[in-house]
Write a structure and sequence with these properties.
- With 240 residues, the protein is α/β, with parallel strands linked by helices.
- It has 6 helices and 13 strands.
- It has a 9-stranded mixed β-sheet, with helices on both faces. Strands 2-3 form a two-stranded antiparallel sheet.
């Protein structure tokens, strides 16, 4: 294999609400830019079955965030109010995550992507932070994600990320749901109100979720996440 080959990173896009033939796949440029900066080759993954066609060629999977919610039935809860859901996207990303985990393809889930990673691993979600967590911070502020909003503290030891328990980072925040602690994964970071901000698969390959948006490069830990992800993707690629 050519050692100069850049790891191929599949990036999941959102989809707008316009009817066919005006329907568009949409993804922010900074997701792709973060992958390129860390040494990878980004690819957009249009919704397609079977997902194995993608898993055969990518070396890493980036599941992006989105302004919608995961169906509570997928994590053994009933909806407490009406949610904006995108079943086609969720079903596609869920199949990709499960397939990537089974093949030990490195995975990073961001915001909604972290929540879906947790669900795929067997966890559950807080459906609405403001009504379910007493004294919670505002996790979806009216400000740009390019601005740090609250701190997180590293609370667990990662198998892959070079972080230490007790470290504090200032990160951005754009979400109203969050992940519940679970034996299904290792909690890596929390915000001052106890909201889970990062998790990691307990065994096997690299699978990390972060609740904030590291593609904006607001915090030092953002660089660590992407560089570690690409390092693991490079290792996976070289083993093919």
């Amino acid at each position: 294999m050519n050692m100069l080959h850049l790891p191929r990173i599949g990036i999941t896009p959102d989809i707008n609400d316009l009817p066919v033939p005006e329907t568009e796949y949409v993804v922010r440029q900074n997701y792709a830019d973060a992958i390129s900066k860390a040494g990878g080759l980004p690819f957009l993954l249009p919704y397609h079955e079977p997902v194995g066609d993608y898993l055969d060629v990518i070396d890493g999977l980036l599941v992006t965030g989105g302004l919608f919610d995961i169906d509570p039935a997928l994590y053994r809860q009933t909806s407490r109010k009406d949610y904006a859901m995108k079943p086609a996207r969720t079903n596609f990303e869920r199949a990709l995550i499960e397939g990537a985990l089974s093949r030990a393809i490195p995975v990073v889930g961001i915001c909604n992507g972290m929540q879906l990673l947790a669900v795929c691993l067997g966890g559950e979600l807080v459906q609405d932070i403001s009504t379910e967590i007493d004294g919670a911070l505002e996790h979806k502020p009216d400000q740009s994600a390019s601005i740090a909003h609250h701190r997180i503290e590293i609370s667990g030891t990662s198998r892959h990320l070079q972080t230490s328990a007790g470290e504090v980072h200032e990160v951005n925040s754009v979400h109203h749901q969050s992940v519940l602690p679970s034996d299904a994964y290792q909690v890596l970071a929390v915000s001052p109100d106890g909201v889970v901000e990062a998790l990691e698969k307990k065994d096997g390959g690299f699978a990390v979720g972060v609740q904030w948006h590291p593609e904006y490069g607001v915090a030092d830990i953002d660089t660590i996440i992407f560089e570690t992800f690409l390092s693991k993707a490079r290792e996976y690629s070289q083993k093919k």
